[in-house]
Specification:
The protein is mainly α and about 300 residues long. The chain has two domains: about 170 residues, UbiA prenyltransferase (Tetracycline Repressor, domain 2, Orthogonal Bundle), CATH 1.10.357.140; about 140 residues. About 80% of the residues lie in helices and about 0% in strands. It contains 16 helices and no strands. Helix 4 runs parallel beside helix 7. It is flat and about 55 Å long.
């Protein structure tokens, strides 16, 4: 390709393409759960410091996304859901994504250490490493348990937010981690149920590919059953409260009803209605996590406004 051709290709990349490399939808979950972890901690953090901490946690999450897209460009090019991403679409070169990911990784970790503390920075560095190396480079293509173990990467943000405020970990932050960790498999397996063909074409050993959709539905129910006590346990900690307890009861009843419904479905029924129940469960699982963390935030706000609120 001539130099002119290279220039034309580079000109096609816009600011939005580089933002897309950071996986903004995933980053929104990182930002929200990290912010909740910071705000519900029993230590006051100056609003400006809190904003800076969340900013650099978000950049660290974006760095993970860029490194993931760099390494998985071959997979993304095959999958219908991802082939329009900047690298497989030819708008951004892989080396650019790698450079952006490494640069943001270094900046986010160092600046979080300076803004908050080095323990929080170390947790952020571990999160980036776990997602980019342990999950993306190793687990995803090696085992159907990829999303189970790899889910730890997405579970660290509330622990990082808590560490920014307190400088350490606690039962509360561990339970917030465990909540996201146990939520991740049912959430992503629901997606895999109606995206199985994509994973098959890409050679990714997702559970739907290696064990089939019926086994995956049973795994969703099993992990949903394991998720419920973790979610309810948070209600009994100092950061829990009446709002969170009510939300946890209602949302987990809905979760179990949905998971049990999936487990009873046959593949013929799913194909007949276009995997409507699987898509509905996937959408609900997103709301489930946001609403539970939102309830934690609501109880924290009420504790500041209503004397004696909580347990």
């Amino acid at each position: 390709m001539s130099d002119l051709g290279l220039i034309e290709r580079q000109d096609e990349a816009g600011f939005g393409d580089y933002v897309q490399l950071l996986k903004p939808r995933v980053m929104s979950l990182v930002v929200f759960t990290a912010a909740v972890g910071l705000l519900v901690a029993p230590v006051h953090v100056h609003p400006f410091v809190a904003f800076v901490c969340i900013l650099f946690i978000a950049l660290g999450g974006g760095a993970s996304g860029a490194l993931n897209m760099w390494y998985e460009a071959d997979i993304d090019a095959v999958m219908r859901r991802t082939r329009g991403r900047p690298i497989p679409a030819g708008r951004v070169e892989g080396g650019e994504a790698l450079g952006l990911g490494l640069a943001l990784s270094g900046i986010s970790v160092v600046m979080l250490g300076l803004a908050a503390n080095w323990f929080a920075a170390a947790l952020l560095a571990l999160t980036i490493f776990f997602y980019a190396v342990v999950y993306t480079m190793w687990l995803k293509r090696a085992t159907p348990q990829n999303i189970v173990i790899g889910g730890a990467a997405g579970a660290f943000p509330p622990m990082i937010g808590w560490a920014c405020a307190t400088g350490g970990v606690s039962v509360e932050s561990i339970l917030m981690f465990a909540l996201i960790f146990m939520w991740t498999p049912p959430h992503f397996w629901a997606l895999a149920l109606f995206m199985k063909d994509d994973y098959s074409k890409a050679g990714v050993p997702m559970l739907t590919v290696t064990h089939g959709r019926q086994a995956t539905r049973r795994h969703i129910l099993a992990y949903s059953l394991l998720l419920v006590p973790v979610a309810l346990a948070l209600a009994l900690t100092p950061i829990g409260g009446p709002v969170y307890l009510a939300a946890a009861i209602v949302l987990n009843m809905r979760l179990l009803r949905g998971a049990a419904g999936l487990a009873r479905r046959t593949e013929a029924e799913a194909e007949a209605d276009g995997y409507a129940a699987e898509k509905s469960f996937f959408g609900f699982s997103l709301s489930y996590l946001f609403l539970l963390f939102g309830a934690l935030l609501a109880d924290a706000a009420l504790r500041g406004l209503v004397p004696g609120w909580g347990w």
